[in-house]
Design brief:
alpha/beta; TIM Barrel; 11 helices; 8 strands; globular; binds 1,3-dihydroxyacetonephosphate
Length: about 240
């Protein structure tokens, strides 16, 4: 299966820069035509990015996060139903750490997202302290404990993003990622039927760039990448995709 590339633009690009990125994509249609790409712009650029991508219908667009509620008095937040999108990320470590989102919060967001969009990305992963204390699998178990008993025909991506590898330039080793993905795979096998499992993909994220993507793509069970900073730089993102031709 060809790999899926999810670009989490975080808060790197403003609306103008986001549109500029999409126009560079459309000038390179051949490269993007046969690739599975998902773009997660900032919320303020979502509508413009969606419009600009109408000419490239194979590219999916999603929200970087959603609120626990569908509507109501939540100043500054964004409901999953605020704008139609293909996908939504929940449980990103930056949300867990900066916004103190615990399993209860992520569970509610996961439920909302699974109801509303075609593909939900649930991010999981241990901090450096947890890794050093050999708690990786314990953390993975806890973060997977919120998975629902059914996906109701929706797709789920579990993105393993070790916190210590995010934005640090420290890519986890292939063996380490393979071991954790295998652990995740066994955990979900005990929860879901083969039919549901075929709708679940496993990703890696954390300092993925043009120099690491080729080697990482050989990891068994790996279906795709959730890429941060390198995905918000057109040249770097283009080089990543070119490596995967
Ligand atoms: P970096 O690729 O910048 O390390 O970020 C990874 C990430 O957090 C994607 O969600």
């Amino acid at each position: 299966m060809s790999k899926i590339f999810a670009a989490n633009w975080k808060m790197y690009l403003n609306e103008e820069e986001s549109i500029d990125f999409i126009s560079k994509m459309s000038s390179n249609k051949d490269l993007f035509a046969d690739k599975k790409v998902m773009i997660f712009p900032s919320h303020t650029a979502l509508s413009s990015v969606k419009n600009a991508l109408q000419i490239m219908p194979n590219i999916k667009v999603g929200m970087q996060d959603c609120d626990m509620k569908l509507s109501g008095a939540v100043t500054g937040s964004n409901s999953i139903s605020s704008i139609p999108v293909d996908s939504c990320i929940v449980g990103h470590s930056e949300r867990r750490i900066i916004f103190k989102e615990d399993e209860k919060v992520v569970k509610k967001k996961l439920e909302n997202s699974l109801q509303a969009v075609e593909t939900t990305i649930l991010c999981i992963g241990e901090t450096l302290d947890e890794k050093n204390q050999d708690k990786t699998f314990e953390v993975v178990d806890k973060q997977l404990s919120i998975l629902p008993s059914a996906l109701n025909g929706k797709k789920l991506i579990i993105a393993y993003e070790p916190v210590w590898a995010i934005g640090t330039g420290l890519v986890a080793s292939n063996d380490y990622i393979a071991e954790v993905l295998s652990y995740i795979n066994n955990a979900i096998k005990s929860l879901y039927s083969d039919e549901v499992l075929s709708e679940i993909n496993l990703f890696y994220g954390g300092s993925v760039d043009e120099s690491s993507v080729e080697s990482l793509s050989t990891i068994p069970l790996l279906d795709g990448f959730l890429i941060g900073s390198a995905s918000a730089d057109f040249k770097k993102f283009e080089n990543i995709l070119k490596k995967m031709r």
